TrEMBL record:
Taxonomic classification: Bacteria, Pseudomonadati, Myxococcota, Myxococcia, Myxococcales
Keywords: Signal
PROSITE patterns given in the database record: PROKAR_LIPOPROTEIN (PS51257)
Protein name: Lipoprotein
Signal sequence annotation: 1-17
Length: 312
């Protein structure tokens, strides 16, 4: 299998409007509200990129719809709470110096995606896109050339917590399918020979973005998903047979908050280079398992029903 040459960019395309109400130049935040900051254009390495043709539907304590994405940035106050944002329409990404010319881009974020907004909080919402080629596109945040894991998690039914026990962080996940993505901008890759013959590739990522979709609940979103933003993830890859690769446990933790994610997966499409080391290439996940846990003992496990593993 030829190595897929993806130089990856995370495109943060933020969009929001509330009905037909015009937006003030300086949004006023009232009691009980937070502020969404939604830039739509960003310049990187001398090139600017923009999302074109998308519409956005927001549901939650307030419902809102955006159909005009012509502005370079939108900010909007919303009542604090948990929201879902759905990107619709015939969207595409363009370079601003070549209007009308589409840049190939793949959406990897869950769609719809869940986010929370706290009172007095300024909150960015990011839709991440991966862009092939020799340039990276990133609207709203920094450009990257990193990798990602994306797919759908399936959790089994969850029994209620016994009376008097601490709140169950994962109560809202029981029996649900949850789309997710873990994306990172950069990584440190180390090649080593284990046991004198086993050629291993170890990856330590830079800060990650961890996003989920579906009705996962405000407690999980705030205390788990949000707490993993900016943490580092690690894993290794090594030959299993002459033509297949095994992926070591993928670990993402926030030690200060005492939470973590562990992923074990099989991706048969991963290949081995002429030097005997596993290739950092994209492959479909054939089978995968995930455990979300707190260091105090609470946990939930599920399967990865489908997805993509793209180490960089």
């Amino acid at each position: 299998m030829q190595m897929l040459k993806w130089f990856v960019g995370a495109v943060a395309l933020f969009a929001l409007a509330c009905g037909e109400v015009s937006q003030p130049s300086t949004p006023v935040i009232r009691d009980g509200e937070g502020l969404l900051e939604l830039p739509l254009v960003s310049t990187s390495a001398g090139r600017s990129y923009k999302l074109v043709g998308a519409t956005f539907a927001i549901t939650g304590p307030q419902n809102a719809t955006l159909t005009d994405t012509s502005a370079e940035s939108v900010s909007l106050p919303l009542m604090a709470g948990t929201y879902s944002i759905q990107m619709n329409g015939d969207w595409h990404v363009e370079r601003t110096d070549a209007p009308g010319v589409t840049v190939q881009a793949t959406l990897v974020s869950p769609n719809p995606m869940t986010f929370t907004l706290g009172e007095g909080e300024t909150r960015p919402v990011r839709f991440l896109f991966k862009v092939p080629g020799e340039a990276s596109a990133n609207v709203g945040i920094g450009v990257d050339s990193g990798g990602w894991i994306t797919g759908t998690l399936q959790f089994g039914p969850r029994d209620p917590s016994p009376p008097g026990s601490p709140p169950d962080l994962f109560a809202d996940l029981g029996g649900k399918s949850v789309p997710f993505v873990i994306s990172y901008e950069s990584s440190t890759v180390t090649r080593s020979t284990e046991y004198g013959y086993l050629k291993r590739v170890s990856v330590q990522t830079g800060p990650v973005a961890f996003q989920v979709g579906g009705s996962t609940g405000a407690v999980f979103q705030r205390q788990f998903a949000d707490a993993l933003q900016g943490q580092s993830m690690s894993f290794f890859m090594e030959p299993y047979t002459i033509s297949s690769v095994v992926v070591g446990p993928i670990t993402l933790q926030n030690l200060e908050r005492g939470i973590g994610v562990s992923i074990v997966l099989r991706a048969p499409g991963l290949g081995i280079g002429a030097d005997g080391f596993p290739l950092l290439q994209s492959a479909a996940i054939e089978e995968g398992f995930v455990t979300l846990a707190t260091f105090s003992g609470g946990s939930i496990s599920g399967q990865i029903l489908s997805g993509t593993f793209a180490p960089r």
